[in-house]
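Researcher: Here's my situation. A collaborator sent me these components and asked whether they could plausibly form a single complex. I don't have experimental data yet, so a predicted model of the whole assembly would be a useful starting point for our discussion.
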Amino acid sequence: MTAPPPQTVLDQLPEALDKKKARQRRFKGLAYCHFIDDWRHIPRGTAVFGRQVVYGYPHIGRVLALEAGLKAHFRAPFWAEEKINGFNVRIVQIEGTPIALSRGGFVCPFATDRLPDLMPLSVFEEHPEIVVCAEVAGPDNPYLESFPPFVRHDVRLFVFDLMQKDHNRFLPCRDKTEITDRHTLPTVPQYGYFTLENVAEIRAIMLRLNEQWREGLVFKEDSDRNHRAKYVTGNVNIDDLRAAADNLLELPAEYFTNRLLRLILFAEENGLPVTPEMERMLGEALLQGLHGAFDKFSRERKVYTTFRCRFREKDNAEILLDHLRRASHGIKIQKRRLERDGAHWLLEFDRIYPALTGMLGDLMAGKMIYD
Amino acid sequence: MTAPPPQTVLDQLPEALDKKKARQRRFKGLAYCHFIDDWRHIPRGTAVFGRQVVYGYPHIGRVLALEAGLKAHFRAPFWAEEKINGFNVRIVQIEGTPIALSRGGFVCPFATDRLPDLMPLSVFEEHPEIVVCAEVAGPDNPYLESFPPFVRHDVRLFVFDLMQKDHNRFLPCRDKTEITDRHTLPTVPQYGYFTLENVAEIRAIMLRLNEQWREGLVFKEDSDRNHRAKYVTGNVNIDDLRAAADNLLELPAEYFTNRLLRLILFAEENGLPVTPEMERMLGEALLQGLHGAFDKFSRERKVYTTFRCRFREKDNAEILLDHLRRASHGIKIQKRRLERDGAHWLLEFDRIYPALTGMLGDLMAGKMIYD
């Protein structure tokens, strides 16, 4: 986290806007800017509200070998927290209203809308400058098909870091815990405080998480440099492949090969034999996902995934759809329904994948390909 | 097949050499040139020996839907021949000596060496101008890890077309059969003569080939235009994925996604349900291949595949190794042994995959990656 101080971010914003490294946006009358790429040490996702800077959430490096990775990168004891399979938000109070920023730095109309359902907002009364870094995860979210097995309905929020506006660093872990405890903020599961002597214990936790199809751990060093690393389970790669199968042609092909490699490395490094059951689960994830895509194409001439999510305010659902339509790079967003569902509005929409839809159309019509 | 006449190929050769679209080579004192790309309608692989032109073997288009593909592309009855999982050669007699040209147009030292073992060469006495187009396939070949299940040892040759020097067209199927029969040339299995009414029968053949893990069929129209198409089984994709798994990072990632798509399309189009057994076989192909790579890396710090092949003449083995070393784009070729084996010389060599070797080395050392 070597980003420049907030005054420098403000000074460089006009040039960043000019060079299309940052852009201006508006959410319900709230004007702001956000950096859409890493630029001059300003992290992607950094958002600027007037003269307040909310720094982007930094990348966390991934290790694929647990023991070697910890030994290569950690010099002090560290905490192990659960990595949650959701989307990253930073929640800040701007002009008295809490909003949720996406990883990329835009105001997420969905998470912002649902904040009162997801966490106690009292923390902003005592700490108006705080930036709550959290994962929003669950089956009913507008962005991702995969979700943690223990969130069976709607979405939940899991806090994993606290920052402050205008400060490009995390609060130390003990300060974070003090605040999250006092305000009963929902946090990611904590697995303890470890040293490099405890690798066997950490490995046992990882194997348990793997069996439960959970995503993995993030390690956070107890030091000023607050060094981090993440390590994920093998099975979450199978989940990712299943979720991505109908999206085969829109994702970079490396998405698939990377996850295969991570899966085998997890098995090898943790001494898990490649069992027929593991083989079947991998094959099933790939084939059932593709079968589903083909099935949809056969019946409806399009390959799509249906997403659903709930809102407190109807207009936020429309703002989300507008946002997705602008940001979806050729993937078509089609509303199915937006209707009352108890205290909420239930939105259902399809993400229609043009590349696979087009390719299946061509191939089913007998198109000849030269490869 | 709209390539220019041989005189034009000869006229354009100096410019092609100049523009690096063709290159000069030498095989044991025989000088020749070959086109390394399609260029001005001259197909890649076209080779020039003095003033004799051997045209490149044209691409055959692939259909992924059998019935729609045949109906879209065939206007007359057609033959169905088996597609053999090997490497393509064109065999010609130059200055009285038969040589085998690779698809790319270089003289293959392996196939050339083995020609007397693979086919009766008497055909060149009666037809000195003939170009025999064939697949060389089997477990002991220097290029490919996959091979047909019915070739259990060494390699065999399967003729599928005849051309003539200086003529950019195939001999009609009946003329081809007359010559291959008379000279007892080994041919690809023939499945018959069909019309568009016979799709069910062809589908039954494909399903049988699929059960036998054979590659598929090539359809050749009985007409002047001699139109062709190929259609492969689902299972051969699983074989390909198994063979490619340790080569994960050297191949384009689309290699994997394309084969997954072909596999599911074959199942869907032929009404094969996605069974747990199919799932397991796909998962096994991917995971066992990667497990093998990891295992080699753990023991020997390198990921490689061992190839073996037999030669009649020892120097041809050395010429092959030289050729592979020049042509292998960063993949390291390491000789294991070259020794007498009955009437032949047995060559064993490793293809060492630098990308996966390097990546596993980094990751096992705990390298952190940002993705």
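Model: Some features of this prediction you could bring to your collaborator: The radius of gyration of chain A is 22 Å. The first helix of chain A runs from residue 6 to 18.
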